[in-house]
Design goal:
7-stranded parallel β-sheet, 6-stranded parallel β-sheet, 14 helices, elongated
Length: 393
């Protein structure tokens, strides 16, 4: 009998297997007997020393490859069929795993995932999910829609009213959101999205600015209309400061002519560099390591979810320039890891850019190091041990 068996319900997301490994390690080092079930290729991607794999005899008959349908309607019905098949498959998985474990971890909570299999979980078993984004339950409010979707209403009611459901949450900001939704504190276990091994030497980044005095600012990632990099380009153009070098890296969405608009705004400005393509891991890391500040410019953040790019920049010792709403506002005010601005105010954006130019990024080094220390494994494990015990009582 295992204390925990872990698996991932997001069949098309290899990235979440890294998270599965982190949770398995934390549970093992908290004294629990842990195994990983091979539901969607976990045996191939989740290898943690001392943690065995459990073979699942049920077979999934769904096509797990990306949809080949030519139209959006075709893709919708193909995915709908897949979800139904996967739902039935997961019911068989629960039948196999429930008799040999006390608790289950079933991956990331997503509105688009199959959910009828949840009814198969016995009432005497506790199931954990990763509450990555509470906006899967609240996004209709954040986008000012009048009604929530049928599926989000069903799933939110299930999570809220099931005494055997628990959620791992990434930080205190997200925990607060779930509490406001009606969840109880014993249902929520804090587990940071990023966990790193303890540093033994100097942290990366925060080297002093080069003698030319140029301030290197980076905006990186997929660019969609909600990511208002266009407002930042306009603010920089109006500022006319040639000592601020702005790099915009990542494929831009064609929606509403956004890609074309960015190209037009950049045209003729030598201090703005554009890398218009999807980046390899090597390119991504190199750009972050060679910038001085990371600029975040989402007009709408659907949830107080830890921004992955923000975390990567801070782990590399780079301060952020970010809109003054959560999670950025809390991060900057609590830890002092960057500069805030009002994204609706061009003057505020300009003031933030000027402040970055006039502030050597090395000034943020101690504050960033203090934040990063909260993500080091020994610190995370200590907090996790105390929280998981309370959640299992």
């Amino acid at each position: 009998m295992y204390d925990f068996i872990l698996f991932e319900t997001l069949y098309n997301s290899i990235n979440h297997c890294t998270d599965l490994c982190n949770i398995a390690r934390l549970l093992r080092d908290s004294g629990y007997h842990v195994a990983i079930a091979d539901v969607f290729h976990e045996a191939e991607y989740c290898k943690v020393e001392g943690i065995p794999h459990v073979k699942v005899n049920a077979k999934c008959k769904a096509s797990l490859r990306p949809s080949s349908a030519r139209t959006s309607v075709g893709r919708y019905y193909e995915n709908l069929k897949n979800r139904y098949i996967i739902d039935r498959y997961l019911c068989k998985v629960i039948d196999e795993l429930a008799p040999i474990t006390k608790y289950l971890y079933a991956g990331t909570m997503m509105i688009g995932m199959p959910f009828m299999w949840l009814k198969k979980i016995p009432k005497d078993k506790t199931v954990f999910f990763w509450g990555l984004r509470s906006y899967y339950l609240t996004y209709y409010k954040r986008l000012h829609l009048k009604y929530e979707t049928f599926s989000s209403k069903i799933i939110s009611n299930y999570y809220l009213h099931s005494s055997n459901v628990r959620l791992f949450v990434s930080d205190e900001i997200i925990r607060k959101e779930f509490l406001e939704l009606g969840f109880q504190s014993w249902q929520l276990v804090l587990r940071p999205e990023r966990v790193i091994d303890e540093y033994t030497g100097k942290r990366v980044g925060n080297e002093k600015r080069e003698q030319d005095g140029k301030c290197k600012i980076l905006c990186i990632g997929s660019l969609r209309p909600q990511k208002r990099v266009d407002l930042c380009i306009q603010a920089l153009n109006e500022l006319g400061d040639k000592d601020i070098l702005f790099t915009i890296a990542g494929k831009a969405s064609e929606e509403h002519g956004y890609s074309k608009r960015i190209a037009e705004l950049i045209d003729g400005h030598n201090n703005i560099k554009r890398i218009d393509r999807r980046l390899s891991d090597e390119e991504y890391n190199l750009l972050i390591n060679t910038c001085e500040y990371l600029l975040l410019c989402d007009e709408k953040q659907l949830s107080s979810v830890t921004n992955g790019t923000m975390s990567e920049a801070l782990l590399a010792g780079k301060p952020i320039i970010a809109p003054d709403y959560d999670p950025y506002k809390t991060m900057v005010n609590k830890y002092g890891v960057g500069i805030l601005y009002d994204i609706k105010s061009p003057v505020s954006i300009q003031n933030a850019l000027v402040k970055a130019k006039n502030t050597d990024p090395v000034m943020f080094k101690n504050d960033i190091n203090q934040f990063v220390s909260t993500l080091e494994y020994p610190c995370v494990l200590k907090k996790f041990k105390s929280e998981i015990v309370l959640s299992l009582k």
